[in-house]
Amino acid sequence: MKRCLTILRYRNFKSKRRRRAKRAVILLVVSITVVFLIGKPVRSKTKDELGIVIDRIVKVLKYGGMTEKPDAVVALGMIGDPRAVEPLLEFLKYSKNVHLRTETVKALGRIGDKRATPALINVLGSDNPSYMRAGAAKALGEIGDKRAIPALEKALKDKYSYTRSQAAQSLKKITGKDYSYEKGSPLKDMEEMMKEIKEMEKELPK
């Protein structure tokens, strides 16, 4: 863990070699964190180091380039620490990149903190791309906040069947009840999704 912290202190990730090194370090940090957190008590020293790691990754999220930000979002979601919720919510609010916002929605769902509920409800009820609305529906189910029930019930009538399906699954997680929804045409949904993905690919870093 200390070695990971030392490497994360490097700020110049402009070269391709250093970008790859940073990406590998983030994944290594996540792996080490999982080992420390699953099935074992966390020592106070480990907690402090984890906080430093999260701070470093948040800095990448705020100030890193477009090739680094996706890794930072995924890493924060995989670590699952509630301290990442506020930075992720801020990023979701101000980012204009649909791909990154979608990954942020997924990360908030993995963390499972109820502070994310209002923002995810907003994503679900807006005119965001269908895959992003579906991600928000799934994330709300992972969080399990009853405040999301009305929004999820409304999403059962979403024009995209996968969003409707995710809403029904999340409602069952929260309420324990089965919800019916119109299945729709998988082929038509796939065509719509492919169009949206092509638009999203335009925003991805080259």
Task: Give your account of this protein's structure.
The chain is mainly α and 206 residues long. The chain has two domains: 1-79, no CATH class; 111-186, Alpha Horseshoe (Leucine-rich Repeat Variant). The chain is 70% helix and 0% strand. The protein has eleven helices and no strands. It has helices at residues 2-8, 16-37, 44-63, 69-79, 85-94, 98-111, 117-124, 130-143, 149-155, 161-175, 186-201. Helix 4 (69-79) runs parallel beside helix 6.
Poorly predicted runs are: 5-13, 33-45
Largest sheet: none
N-to-C order of helices and strands? HHHHHHHHHHH
Percent range of helical residues: 55-70%
How far the N terminus sits from the C terminus, by CA atoms, comes to 31 Å
Layout of secondary structure:
Elements: H1 2-8, H2 16-37, H3 44-63, H4 69-79, H5 85-94, H6 98-111, H7 117-124, H8 130-143, H9 149-155, H10 161-175, H11 186-201
Helix pairs in contact: 1-3, 2-3, 2-4, 3-4, 4-6, 5-6, 6-8, 7-8, 8-10, 9-10
